[in-house]
Design goal:
- This protein has 294 residues and is mostly helical.
- It has one domain.
- The protein is built from ten helices and two strands.
- A two-stranded parallel ribbon has the order 1-2.
- α2 packs across α6, α3 packs antiparallel against α4 and α8 crosses α9.
- The chain is globular, with a radius of gyration of 21 Å.
- It is found in: Cell membrane.
- This is YihY/virulence factor BrkB family protein.
- One of its GO terms (cellular component) is plasma membrane.
- Pfam families: Virul_fac_BrkB.
- It is a multi-pass membrane protein.
Length: 294
């Protein structure tokens, strides 16, 4: 598909996407994802810290994550999350308790991605196969969700490594190049963060739905979603730091801010998922009646 054709049809694409987005119940879906995000957050943090921290250093990873969280939702919420990151692994426990604990962590951390799968299936109008074993499907979906946690950990690790390399490189060349040229180093860092967001969204749009989504639609949809997400991230940071919506809720403010951030971000994600489907319908002859979970 030529880029000129897509640009010409963009108003029609966006209009159809908006209609489908509203019809899919995005506010209800985002509220569900936000609720499960709160339940998944402690386990998700523990797994990410152990995955990436054992390679890059737990304290470094913790500091980097807290910096990102502070920029997104403020110091108070970051401090609440910091408490979740405190190491509780020094206590002596039995093997059985350890196994149960690991299973609980995996199950808890995958809740948010499990709900995203359900939301994407609703957007793609996926029909469940009545012959499918429900228990096995739940296990498979949970394992697939855990795979996305591994992807996040891998992308975070690469991001930390490249950021450290750029930082070290910039310090060495700072004395040799003009200030206006030196700023391009940080532009590269910013573009890399967009690339990682794009890869994560592309993986979600491709593998989370219970149907085969063609890469051509995934690439376009993930690109638009990544751009909207980055714009939304800065707007949300401004909104949270200026309006302080969590201050109304007192001690529960941090939880409310996290839920708001996830909810707003999910609205963008679902818009991108709907755009991907509309694109596939218009240009790739996608047919809903062939969409069945196997």
């Amino acid at each position: 598909m030529k880029a000129k054709t897509i640009i010409k049809d963009l108003p029609k694409l966006l209009k159809k996407t908006g209609v489908n987005w509203l019809d899919s119940g995005p506010f209800e879906l985002s509220a569900i994802v936000a609720y499960y995000a709160i339940l998944s957050l402690p386990a998700l943090i523990v797994i990410i810290l152990n995955l990436v921290g054992n390679i890059w250093g737990r304290e470094i990873v913790q500091g980097e994550l807290l910096d990102e969280i502070t920029n997104a939702v403020g110091i108070q919420t970051a401090e609440s999350i910091r408490v979740m990151m405190l190491d509780r692994g020094d206590e002596s426990v039995s093997i059985f308790t350890t196994i149960i604990g690991i299973g609980t962590l995996i199950y808890g951390s995958t809740g948010v991605f499990y709900q995203l799968q359900a939301a994407f299936d609703k957007i793609w109008k996926v029909k469940e196969n009545p012959n499918t074993n429900g228990f096995l499907k739940i296990i498979f979906d949970r394992l697939k969700s855990f795979g996305f946690i591994l992807i996040i950990g891998f992308l975070l690790l690469i991001s930390f490594v490249l950021t450290a390399l750029i930082s070290a490189f910039s310090k060495r060349i700072e004395v040799f190049v003009p200030d206006n040229l030196f700023e391009y180093v940080y532009v590269i860092d910013f573009l890399m963060s967009i690339l990682f967001i794009y890869i994560l969204f592309a993986a979600m749009f491709k593998y989370l739905p219970g149907k085969n989504v063609r890469w051509r639609a995934v690439k376009v949809g993930a690109g638009l979603t990544a751009i909207l997400f980055v714009i939304g991230k800065y707007l949300l940071a401004w909104y949270f730091n200026t309006m302080e919506p969590g201050s109304t809720y007192g001690a529960a403010g941090s939880v409310i801010l996290i839920m708001l951030w996830v909810s707003y971000s999910s609205l963008i994600l679902f818009f991108g998922a709907n755009f991907t489907k509309v694109y596939a319908d218009m240009y790739l002859n996608n047919k809903d009646d062939e969409v069945i979970i196997k």
